[in-house]
Amino acid sequence: MAKILVIYHSQGGNTKSAAKFVAQGAQAAGSRVELREAEKAKSKDLLECDGVAFGSPDYFNYIAGGLKDFFDRTFYPTQEKVAGKPYVAFITHGGGGKAKGSIELLCRIFKFKKIAETLLIKQRPDSAAIIQLKELGKKLAEKSTEKNHE
Ligand SMILES: Cc1cc2nc3c(=O)[nH]c(=O)nc-3n(C[C@H](O)[C@H](O)[C@H](O)COP(=O)(O)O)c2cc1C
């Protein structure tokens, strides 16, 4: 059974809501899921999961500071140990969504393996977005069971 980490930052609740749907999708596909606020997550969480989903609001065309801080704290302790680990990402935004570029850049630097297009969700997920978010979680779960990062 794959272990999926869903890690997010959320100030107003939109990204938290999106993260819960990604987690539900992964769970429904048979994975064990840890849903973590970025501020509380540690390197160990990243090392121990089989696949990871990152969620962030778009703040000033960049990812939220809380999630950036997670990447900052975990880079050296996980360097070269997470290469090839499957990842997906989702951004909630107010009409822009340029933070997609920054999250994908960081994931490339960590050498995670992108297994689906990053989702852009406007504000709180609506019924169409909920389907996409659950599908994203399912895809991550399916790819992560293959343990293709080893
Ligand atoms: C400080 C701040 C900066 C923001 N900057 C942008 C932005 O550059 N582009 C954009 O599309 N939305 C921007 N927004 C809107 C948020 O991305 C959007 O409301 C998001 O869904 C908030 O997520 P949250 O409820 O999880 O905090 C900004 C919001 C805040 C509070």
TrEMBL record:
One of its GO terms (molecular function) is electron transfer activity. Residues 4-150 form the Flavodoxin-like domain. Gene3D superfamilies: 3.40.50.360. It comes from the Bacteria. InterPro entries: Flavodoxin/NO_synth, Flavodoxin_CS, Flavodoxin_dom, Flavoprotein-like_sf. Transmembrane segments: none annotated. Signal peptide: none annotated. This is Flavodoxin. It comes from bacterium (Candidatus Ratteibacteria) CG_4_9_14_3_um_filter_41_21.
